[in-house]
TrEMBL record:
This is Phytanoyl-CoA dioxygenase. The keyword Iron does not apply. It comes from Tsukamurella spumae. Keywords: Dioxygenase, Oxidoreductase. GO terms for biological process: fatty acid alpha-oxidation. Gene3D superfamilies: q2cbj1_9rhob like domain.
Length: 395
């Protein structure tokens, strides 16, 4: 704690967030206020500062005017409140919950038989079973089940409240098996999927923007008693501005270990949270519960460029020129051209072909181009590697 606070004074600029801004005393003070249920009239109750919604919210959602008030309340809860809401019984037989769980179980069995699947951004290899791109796989395998499941109005309600219309849903099934150990506490996509050195390169306003581009959700496909290790949360932690740099620091991890909340869930409960909330999947200490959740990541419509650009074609064309510039020692100019021409971000990707094994993501076009130039890769070899990278990202 003293190491963190002692480096703060005079080291940061107003438009930047650095590790020197990470002060545990300020973080702890921010979390002391708790959750006042009087500020959330549609919530049924709070439990350890987490808001639980049920009958009152369902009734409000059915009325257009009341639905807007409820939406505003949910957005406020996610932004400046606890950062997490639970809708009890959000999915049930009307949505084919049991049939979907059986389908996901079958898919995992098939993956194991073929040795496919796996990889996790925040957990040790082998601790769990993953179905990447479960949204597409669900739709292709059982369209009727998919339609029942995603007709759910709770998902639409919370996604629209946080992101507005035209959002994009993705899904991954995560099953933590008995003996599976807890994840490290973290924040989520986007900046949460970067190492601190990379996250620090983004200006302060990007740190504030990142959470409102994504909604994180999790549907409990099975009952999740505490022994099965449901997710650990730190309500209110999404409000801490330097959090994308703080969550890896030992003092903040120790604070999370001491103060997190963990709540049991029933099959069909749905949790939604601000991606900046400090959280981590728990250890599954049960004898036989395979803790299955459908991890929903819902993205803002705004997270894309206006033009559809074939960046691979651009790179194939300009690569010889980049080689010449590299030979001339124009490294700064080369970096500028790569930034304009290449895809510098690892996502979206096909995580079946490009799983996060050994890191947070696979190689990007920009990283491949730098590697090719550094090793003197011939243009034809570069073109083949670029095509292979494109194939790994193909839906």
């Amino acid at each position: 704690m003293s190491t963190i606070s002692s480096t703060r004074a005079g080291t940061s600029r107003a438009g930047r967030i650095t590790e020197a801004d990470c002060r545990l005393d300020e973080f702890a003070a921010l979390l002391e206020s708790g959750t006042d249920i009087a500020q959330y009239p549609h919530a049924d109750r709070t439990e350890r500062d987490v808001l639980f919604y049920g009958g009152a919210a369902t009734a409000a959602a059915a009325d257009p005017r009341a639905r807007q008030d409820l939406s505003d309340e949910l957005a406020r809860a996610l932004l400046t409140g606890p950062g997490i809401v639970v809708f009890e019984g959000a999915f049930d037989d009307r949505h084919g919950l049991r049939a979907a769980t059986e389908l996901f179980t079958t898919m995992i069995t098939e993956q194991r038989a073929t040795g496919s699947g796996g990889g996790d951004h925040f957990a040790a290899p082998g601790a769990n079973d993953r179905i990447w791109n479960a949204l597409r796989k669900h739709a292709v395998r059982d369209p009727e089940s998919f339609a029942r499941y995603y007709a759910n109005d709770v998902l639409a309600l919370v996604a629209t409240a946080w992101l507005g219309p035209m959002y994009q849903v993705t899904s991954a099934i995560n099953t933590v098996n008995p003996g599976g150990t807890a994840q490290s506490p973290h924040r989520d996509y986007h900046l949460g999927f970067m190492d601190p050195a990379t996250a620090q390169r983004f200006p302060r306003h990007a740190h504030l923007l990142s959470p409102v581009l994504t909604l994180q959700g999790a549907v409990a496909q099975v009952d999740m008693p505490l022994e099965s290790g449901p997710t650990l949360y730190l309500p209110g932690s999404q409000r801490y501005e330097p959090g994308y740099l703080a969550f890896t620091l030992p003092a903040f991890r120790a604070y999370f270990d001491e103060h997190h909340v963990q709540l049991p869930l029933r099959a069909g409960d749905a949790v939604f949270f601000n991606p900046a909330l400090f959280h981590a999947a728990g250890s599954n200490r049960s004898a036989g519960i395979r803790r299955m959740a459908n991890l929903l990541q819902v993205s803002s419509a705004f997270g894309r460029a206006m033009d559809a650009v074939d960046r691979s074609a651009i790179l194939r064309s300009v690569y010889p020129q980049l080689q010449a510039m590299t030979a001339a020692g124009a490294s700064g100019a080369v970096e500028n051209v790569i930034a304009a021409a290449a895809e510098g971000y690892a996502f979206p990707s096909n995580l079946d072909r490009d799983p996060p094994v050994g890191g947070m993501h696979g190689e990007t076009q920009a990283e491949l181009t730098r590697r090719a130039l550094a090793t003197g890769m011939p243009p034809e070899t570069f073109a083949r590697e670029l095509a292979a990278l494109d194939e790994r990202h193909r839906p």
